[in-house]
Amino acid sequence: MVFSSAVFLFVFFPLCLAGYYLIPKSLIAVKNIFLLIMSLAFYGYGEPKFVYVMILSIFVNWGFGLCVDRFRGKVSAKICLAGMVVWNVGIFFVYKYLDFAIINIDRFLGFDFELPGFVLPIGISFFTFQAMSYVIDVYRGTALVQKNPLNTALFISFFPQLMAGPIVRYNSIAEQLTGRSGGFDLESFSYGVKRFIIGLSKKLILANTVAVVADRAFGAPAADPPTLLTVWLGAVCYAFQIYFDFSGYSDMAIGLGRMFGFRFLENFNYPYISRTITEFWRRWHISLSSWFRDYVYIPLGGSRVPMGRLIFNLFVTWMLTGVWHGAGWNYIAWGLMYFVLLAFEKLVRIPERTAKTPLLAIPYRIFTIVCFLFGWVIFRASGLAEALRYLKVMVGLSVDGQHFPAASELSLFYVKDNWMILIICVLACTPILTALTTRVHKGGARLVKTWDALGTVCLIALFVICVSYMVNGSYNPFIYFNF
Amino acid sequence: MTEQKKKKNKSGLALTLAFLIVVIFLTGWNADRFVAMMKTDLPGITPENAIWRTGSWNTNFTEYFRFRWELIDLYGLFNLSVGKQSLDNFDLVKDGEGVMQKTQEAFDRQQAEDSVKTLSASFAERGIPLIFVAQPPRFTEESFPVSAEVHFFGGRDPVFLKALTDAGVDVLEANVEGKVMLKTDMHLTTAAEFEVARQIAERLETLGIDYRDAGKIFDLGNYDSESHPFYGNLVKSAGRYFTLGGDSFELLHPRFKTDFTIENPESGKERSGDFRHSLMNGMEDELEYVKEPYWVLDYLAYPSAMYTITNHQQEDGCKILFVMDSVAMRSVAYLSLGAGQITVIDPRGENGNALLSEAMNTGDYDAVIVEGGGEEFYFSMDLN
Questions:
Q1: For residue B210, which phi and psi values (nearest 5 degrees)?
Q2: Which of A267, B71, B229, B327 places its Cα 20 to 30 Å from the Cα of A249?
Q3: In chain B, which among 221-240 make CB contacts under 8 A with chain A?
Q4: What is the torsional sign of CA B321, B322, B324, B330?
Q5: pLDDT at A383 over 90
Q6: Is the same domain home to B305 and B164?
Q7: Residue B30: half-sphere exposure toward Cβ, Cα within 13 Å
């Protein structure tokens, strides 16, 4: 089930909301059980058989958590931790990478193994990482063990963040599972509504609209004849699509969480305004990058190590980040591209230099934008060869001896058809509205009142427009459901 | 509580209330439809079929959503306000004249050519002439939408038509003066389809086929006309305001005596009576809550793969096989007024292609007519 569907908004959500608030606020445990049941129903919608995979994962990780806690300080705790990693990575590998591994073993070693063809359970990358963070946090002593399996189950399966994050860290939510107020809090709820509407608008109005141009430029369903303008426009549109799609989902997740009394950490912070690649990764998919930082990069030694070791640490972290996104060479290449760029920035101390030298900051900002656009091309393409072909056209090189024109009637039509949406996308990628609101709030009372009223009216109008998109639209799954 | 917090709470309250009102209102108004859908769909659900069964829930739910049309109007208006010309994954594009056009996959010319040539040659072997009817083009060069790189429904492909002519296929390039196309729909106007039927009848007569009373049948003075406000399939997902207003759909009822039976051998269903009660009223099985009839489907028996029209006034008249998709339904209805029997085959229907192969090898006809609009028609008609 997706948040941007009529079945979610007009069936599941009202039932869930009504059920939750009808349970007396003192009965948090009952509310949690209710949310758990609804979360499993949410996950089971579509592919009920994967509910068993998740339930199994929940109970095994809960068990590992208990063992790690019980044997704290002993070798057995380390063995349990290792067992937990093997179990989770194993599940992850079987469902996500086994086919890819076999294809490559067959290709490079000349075998002819049959592909098992497992279907990827939606959200496995997210709930597996959440489960791992729980056991690791318990092992490290940064979180208390959860003795109630139902609470562990709710932490892992809570529907707002279940399928595409943010990857919630156990220690950030442990207290809220049992200690939050179960009553209706208008401020929190209205903030949730606001974030939900913003997320829904990002997904339905912006991401889905620019996705059409991106899909056509990248050749789905049928490739348009490439021109320089088409491929650049396609890359820009995909950059907007993936940002509004994913950050829209995170906004909705954070908003829904708030409506049920939970506070999730932010997952995006205007990544496209970054001055450097290092900054980009501090602002993009924060829950994943901080997961890799805390559970891979720092345990490997982090930055305060000799140069060779630092390069190795970065390599491992970014290789894994690429692999996490999908079973394909293009994802690995995408991860390695960021490894090279981040190693370069660390070695040359780019963030410090750009902060000190404004003359360097502007060209480096442009370089950063070009880098993440190239990165998204590698990420979006159906394979490495396709990505290279696309990148060649972008930089004006010939492909198979064929040169491509600067623009065509069709590419100009795309611009004409989407220029307003593209301007909205550019504005929505920046904190301009937030800055404006802050400035207005420093002004007179009447201005603040008018501004807030206008904001409320705009949000309500946006919500109704989103409903019109929802009722009209076909099924539009989120990009990150695939990961 | 501070003054600022109070104000914040006021706007928060307004937002929360408005959000909940919209959700509760639309949930309440549509609950009966969802429950009805569940009653039909839930009993047969299994873990194996769940993915596609539940996958259709959202589509079905939104398809019959109360206030759907008002919301779609809003969708169209919003897109108009942001300067959009294309909608629905580039499926629909508004051309330079404000008329909606539908994009389609690149036409597989070779397969279409091969299929029509095979049909023509097979019938020619049995001495049955085949006429390939090229519809009046939907758009002119001047209004050609977007660019030559995108393929649109309803264009005329001169290379394809020349290839057919060169292969000996009898091609009738139907041309109609005046308003040919509905602005909001992929189909011709009724007057244009009527005119195409007249040109087909003329060609049948030229071929020496016993087509009767053409003078009377194709005189518009012998018809009562009835008009209905109409928003066709090209605005069903764009709303009524995205394009240049709606259309008027014309129904033509013969004033002279008519007596027909239309029967579908696969379903066993049949309708008999005069023109209006047999060849029209095709929508009589429509769902109760479909408030705006899609008038194109009022004719004949869409979407059956095969049905037969018998004209009891001309039982010994000519027998025609008409291979078509929905673009010729009204032409067939009016053409049947001077024929003895017309068998309609739509290759897109279930077994459509097999039925066509069978008709090609064993059917007893005086003439065969082929008229299709979309690439799906040619894609389905795979006779090689």
A1: -75, 70
A2: B71
A3: 237
A4: negative
A5: no
A6: yes
A7: 25
B42 touches chain A (CB under 8 A): no
CA–CA gap between residue A320 and residue A342 (Å, rounded): 15
- In this complex, which of B19, B47, B78 lies closest to A48 when CB atoms are compared? B47
User: How many domains are contained in chain A?
Assistant: 2
In angstroms, the Cα distances linking A62 to A70, B109, B258, B295 are: 12, 61, 78, 61
State the pTM of this model: 0.86
Q: Please check whether residue B79 lies inside any domain of the structure.
A: no
Same domain membership, residue B103 and residue B51: no
Tell me whether residue A403 is one of the annotated catalytic residues. Answer: no
pLDDT higher for A51 or B236? A51
In a 13 Å sphere around the CA of A456, the CA atoms on its Cβ side amount to: 21
Say whether the peptide bond before residue A221 is cis (omega within 30 degrees of 0): yes
CB-closest option in B13, B47, B58 to A186:
B13
- For B130-155, how does the pLDDT look when each residue is reduced to its tens digit (9 = 90+)? 999 999 888 765 555 556 667 788 87
Predicted pLDDT of residue B24: 95
| Residue finishing a domain among A121, A152, A181 | A181
* Contact present, A321 and A336 (Cβ < 8 Å): no
Residue A160 CB partners (closer than 8 Å, separation 6+): A252, A253, A254, A256, A257, A260, A262, A264
Domain identity same for A59 and A124: yes
pLDDT at B6 > cutoff 70: no
For residues B107 and B99, the answer to whether their CB atoms sit within 8 Å is no
Residue type, A8: F
B276 domain-assigned: yes
- Please indicate, yes or no, whether residues A200 and A68 belong to a single structural domain of this protein: no
- Do residues A219 and A80 both lie within one domain? no
B4 vs B281 pLDDT, higher one: B281
Q: In this complex, do B89 and A9 lie within 8 Å of one another by their Cβ atoms? A: no
Alpha helices in A71-96 (DSSP H): 75-92
For position B290, what pLDDT does the model report? 46
Is there a single domain that holds both residue A126 and residue A197? no
Q: Which residues contact A389 (CB under 8 A, 6 or more apart)?
A: A399
Residue B110: pLDDT over 80? yes
Do A224 and A230 contact (CB within 8 A), yes or no?
A: yes
Give ∠ CA A95-B42-B31 in degrees, rounded to 5. Answer: 110
What's the rounded mean pLDDT across residues B158-179? 90
Residues of A in contact with B12 (CB under 8 A): 186-187, 189-191
* Contact in structure between A98 and A116 (CB atoms under 8 Å): yes
Query: Please, what's the b/e burial string for A373-382 (b: 16 or more CB within 10 A of its CB; e: otherwise)?
Result: bbbbbbbbbe
Decide if A216 is inside a domain.
Answer: yes
Structure tokens at A434: 């937030």
Question: How crowded is residue A158: how many other Cβ atoms within 10 Å of its Cβ?
Answer: 26
Which residue type sits at B148? A
Is residue B291 pLDDT above 80, yes or no? no
Is pLDDT above 90 for B311?
yes
| Residue B284 contacts A, CB cutoff 8 Å | no
- Taking the Cβ of residue B23 and every Cβ of chain A, the question of whether any pair is shorter than 8 Å is answered with yes
φ/ψ region of B89 (left if φ > 0, alpha if ψ in -120 to 50, else beta) reads left
C-beta separation of B197 from B334 below 8 A: yes
User: Do A129 and A223 belong together in one domain?
Assistant: no
Spatial contact of A88 and A57, defined as CB atoms under 8 Å apart: yes
| Eight-class DSSP state of A205 | I
Task: Nearest by CB to B72, from A46, A420, A468: name it.
Answer: A468
Residues A249 and A329 in one domain: yes
B15–A459: do the CB atoms touch at under 8 Å?
yes
Q: A234 and A177, same structural domain?
A: no
Q: State whether residue B80 sits within 8 Å of chain A by CB.
A: no
- DSSP 3-state of B9: helix
Element (H, E) at B308: strand B306-311
- If you count them, how many residues does chain A have? 483
Query: Residue B147 has what pLDDT?
Result: 63
